[in-house]
């Protein structure tokens, strides 16, 4: 499969500081980075602007096709474009951004070279053939072999835990423990105990000593999910455990040495959280030695058919998903991302084809060419149009007729055998019978 055109960056962009204390500083974006470029006062940013009125992480920039997407990171004094404060904007080149007392010009080079990305359909258990995913794989391969902390960012359901597992399984710690701790799944009062363990009698209900996830993952990998939700009061203790490689159980008086690789993930924008004072800057830097940003499924539509086919097989589906289902899934927005797609595919296998798309998503058939004999289908549509019924009713009549003809045809081809006809249709036998009873 090939990457979609929408996935492909087109040309390069250059950001140049043209006025202010850092005048002359510049950075070039070519679309090869697996995460957005950061601009701000912090030395950790890709373009550092040493301006007292500029936030540590002021805005991010990434190429989207022929445009440069600018996103303000909840900066204190805002990002200005043409005298207007922006939260997000798509630039084409030739614009000037103002942050603090500094101006940054944006220039696009249509002849700029966008580095190719390697071929492949995945990294370990992480699947994807789109350019948005393939550009991640070289970095993932390097990080799997390293021992540095990695922060995985992306929306809910994008596959952050799957990527963490792949980084663990493809590295030298593959035969060691892989322990998951979800900051949103444990009551706030028990988070410290879950992380570091507790001694007997440390609190009501602590009837025996218990290891925390750091000790459980000793020698292996600890994956901390939704790290952005960790209470700020516990963040210094987590930082100390990571930096010193030692923990102290709740109610205990001795330190315990641990050797644990830390992978973390968040659906939140931690640059925003740091800027807002809800997440410690020092902990952020310790967790984000390397960063990987997983795109939402809507930004990697070239992967939908591959993922759907894999989930179809895993759910016990025969063959491959019907082309009509793949087309429908490829057009959906998927706010729940890969998790939502998996659920939809599983539902289709178990219960049969899902309901037809909403009225405003119904495909519109092109008119027949002049001089072309009218087909039975066009005759049907013409008669429905002439009847003047509401759109929803007209659409239902067309679908009923399509299903009736389809059922008749597939039964004829399989000698009236319902099981074989249902399998060929890509739907469950029960669902096939339900359609057959409705349209006969």
Number of strands: 20
The percentage of residues in β strands lies in 15-25%
The residue-averaged pLDDT reads: 85
Report the end-to-end length measured between terminal Cα atoms.
40 Å
| Main sheet specs | 6 strands, antiparallel
Radius of gyration: 27 Å
* Strand arrangement across the biggest beta sheet: 2-1-11-10-7-8
What is the molecular shape? globular
Proportion of residues in helical segments: 25-40%
Number of helices, where a helix is a run of at least 4 consecutive DSSP H or I residues: 15
Can you describe this structure?
- With 440 residues, the protein is an alpha/beta fold.
- The chain is 33% helix and 19% strand.
- It is globular and about 75 Å long.
Question: In brief, what are we looking at here?
Answer:
The chain has 440 residues and is of the alpha/beta class. The protein has 15 helices and 20 strands.
List keywords for this structure.
440 residues, five-stranded mixed β-sheet, six-stranded antiparallel β-sheet, 15 helices, alpha/beta
